Amino acid sequence: MQICAYRTERSYKRRFGLRMLGIALGLLVWIATVNAQEVLRIPYVADIGTFDPDSGFEVGGISAINNVYEGLVDYEPGSTRIVGLLARSWEISDDGLTYTFHLVDGVKFHDGTPFNAATVINSFERRRDRGLNLSYFLANVKDMRAPDDSTVVLTLSDPQPWFLDALASPWGPKIISPTALAEHDNGDFATTWLNEHAIGTGPFKLSEFKRGQRYELERNDDYWGNKPFFRQIQISVVPDISQQILQLQAGAIDAVPINYPFAQLTSLPGGLEITAAPSMIPYYLFVKPNSPLDDAEVRNAVLTAINPALWVKDAFGEFASLSRSVYPNVMLDPVNPIRFPTDLEAAKAAITKRGAVNLVIGLHSAAPSYSRIADLMIAQLALIGVKATAYVLPSGAAYTLKDDPNPPDLLLTIAGPDAAHPETQAKAFFTKDGPLNFFGRVLPEADAIVDQAGQLTDVKERDALYERAGQMYFDAGVVIPLVDVNDVVVHAKRLKDLGLRPVNPPGNIDFATVRWGP
Asked: Domains in the chain, start-ordered, CATH in brackets?
């Protein structure tokens, strides 16, 4: 009896122990699941050059920077409407020279420093006065004042109707902790330290910066605004898109933010879905002076052959639309959209009359979309007797084409502006001194109309002038707008509220709004 009782007790203890082990394992699985749900894993195709919001024109990494730092205003997700961020409201004087911003109360930087009007001016002066790369955003600001802790008054040298757009730009001025700036200023305005460190007011803190490997953001639990869903953002550097796709299919990451092959979007594996949104990703051709297209008949024939209506679906499926003007479609809706000629027989006759026509197309990037567009256009040009070839330009070469003794006849590039106002597009790409006027083409009569439009605050009046100038650039053979491509993110199912903004470079998920949903 004693032996039997002992065995019964031992059996009971064994069963009880197994139950406790099962409960513990279940709890660990539940905790692991919860923790996994609170971590978002995102790959970048390229390294972040600098985390300094005043020094670098980051593209792929702008979502990380703009979730750590904040500005006075921002663009609303999915829109070009400007909304308050660290400024809750503002007024503009009748003469358009004075902007008065009323700040959000109770905000602190990640290091505990209180946010106030003086901190705004300190950051704005750093950007404007220290020779940093993005100083041009505030170049027109001649005076900054803080009448009290909650008010900032900015006075412009000249009226600038797109000034709020400059502040709302993804690369617009952000507010940096003055304590961090002072502590890490080694005669370089803290630029060295800020390359790999950050102290802002945003919903996330930069917790790890491993150049070329990974970055981590931790949720700012003291954030003044809405609490983000994710506790941590894990960003890995994975340049190879095929590797990103394999990792996504294996569940090792949660999204492929950019460059998922368009041809594969119609047959995604189970468990994946697409979020697509309008974007300022227009593909344009810029035309070299003294090219075969200087001949109006040749240009008309070439336009007939490369008419994007003939190939847009082959290149991008349902995720692109025809460009309606030389401005992104979400920026300006023209009354009279640009039209391509359609008579292929007339185009063939024009080329036969002209004789041999050869064109070289330079591709700004090796991204698959560039070569796909080029291949389709080359095939179309062959139909009218034009022999065309394409090659990928060396890195940075597009920005020196005006000084290149042997440039391509055409440059295929994305002509996306840094803000949602037409002035930023025209003055960047088309006017005489535009920093991205790739071939240095000059059309004074169109430039004069752009200058006139830039003084107007009435949207209908200003857009009519920008449209008129844009048509002139097109008619003169300066630029050929092709297609506007959507921002397309492929991600795990149930990932919601990605917060894509048209002005942002593609694939920049807003970590403050994204979440898992039903």
From this structure: 62-249+488-516 (3.40.190.10), 282-485 (3.10.105.10)
